[in-house]
Amino acid sequence: MRPLWWGVMICLWWPVAAWPSAQVYVLCYHTFLGKPSIHTDFSVAEFDRQITDLAAAGAKFVTLNDVLSGHINGWRNVLISIDDGNASVRDAYDKVLKPRGIKAVFAIYPGIISARKFALTWEDLRRLESEGNTIIAHGYFHEYLTDKAAAQNPTVFEREIMGSQKRLAEKLNHPVPIFAYPFGITSNAAVREVGTYYRKAFTIEARPLLVPKDLKTQPLLLPRYMMVKGRVQEILRALRNT
Q1: 161 touches 110 (CB < 8 A)
Q2: pLDDT tens sequence across 176-200
Q3: Cα–Cα distance between 16 and 107 in angstroms, integer?
Q4: Element (H, E) at 201
Q5: Which pLDDT score is estimated for 12?
Q6: Whether the Cβ atoms of residue 88 and residue 35 lie closer than 8 Å to each other
Q7: DSSP letter at 75?
Q8: How sure is the predictor about 2, in pLDDT bands with cuts at 50, 70 and 90?
Q9: pLDDT at 111
Q10: CA within 13 Å, CB half, 29
Q11: Distance of CA 121 to the CA centre of its chain
């Protein structure tokens, strides 16, 4: 017979070592201009084929709220995220995601919104939110958040993190508690500062996000796949082999 302490040790060990998890592939897109020379860019037609292939491979498209609330199960969940706020997002959303009922996450740096011809407008962002999508912060002018940047120009560093949240909240009329690191680059200074203002944050790491494990153990370093040429084939193989 095992001693009494055995059951206590199992209870203490279980949440960390064998935490039951679902998983979600968080896919990070950028632009939809159809420029072959840009490794993070896809045409709208290419994007449409990728979403079609993902669905055929068994992908279940989920929302950010589904993920953060833990209301997902299984191993083939996919969350679409689109960074920066390029105007090409309009067609990608209206022609590919919206007809399928897929709700995406839009990581936005507000310094360009309604200020550059190549960017979305505040009206675009409000429409996206009204249709069930989620806006999160992505820096103010998409600057690098390295330890060196924090030391050399703390004012710019703070604007990228806190100022981004403040501007988005002012224009969208609600809190913005989620962040995505520009370029997916993190640093000790960035994680500390982001943790002061945000509940969760996404970086770039080519692996699925485990739910609820990653949400509990590394809430400021949640993984996303950078979608570059050929990356979708990797995701499709993983989905088919799950």
Answers
A1: no
A2: 999 999 999 999 999 999 999 999 9
A3: 31
A4: strand 200-202
A5: 37
A6: no
A7: S
A8: very low
A9: 98
A10: 29
A11: 20
